[in-house]
Amino acid sequence: MLEQLIQFDQNLFFTINHGLSNSFFDWLMPALRNRFFWTPLYLFIIIFLIRNYGKKGWIMILFLGLTFGCTDFISSSLIKPTVQRLRPCNDPEIKSAVNNLIDCGSGFSFPSSHASNHFGLAVFLIVMFYPKWKLILPIGLLWAASISFAQVYVGVHYPIDILAGAMLGGIIGFIMGTILLASKTFKAWNSGN
Length: 193
Description:
This protein is 68% helix and 0% strand. The protein has six helices and no strands.
C-alpha cells in the first residue's frame, strides 16, 4: 500500500513537473515560490492591519508571526528530520529526470514548509476576516495553493509533501485564529465592525 502511494505520488509529480511544463510557467512558478515576490503583499497586510485596527492590528500581526513560527518549526525542525524524505531533485533514483528550475537545496521534502507556512497564514486570515469578507476564503486558499503548486512544478516537492504541509498549516492557522477570537480583547470582534 505504501509503495503504491509513493508510486502514485511520483507519477503525479512528473505529470506536473513535466506534463504541464511550458515557458510561461517556467518563468512564473519560480517567482511564485520566492519570498521576495510576495514582500509587497506582506507589507500591505501589516500596514492594513495597523492602520485599520490599531492595537488589535498589532495583536493580529503578532499572531500571524506566531502562526508562521509554529508551522515552520513543526514542519522544518520536527517532522522533516524525523521522516527524512529526499526531495525529488535530490532522489538518486529520479533526480536525472526531474525538470529542476531552482537550486534544489539540501533539506528534506516532507512536509513542504512553504505549504505549511502559507496555508497557516491564509487560514488564520480567513478565520479572522471571513464573516466580513467572504472573498478572503477563495483568495486566501488560491494564494497558498499557487505557492504550493509552484513547489512541485519547480521540482523540489512531491504532491503529498504539499498536501501534508497544507493540512498542517491549515490546522495551525485555524487553531491560532480560534485562540485569538476567544481572547478577551477579541470577544466582540466581528471582522473589524
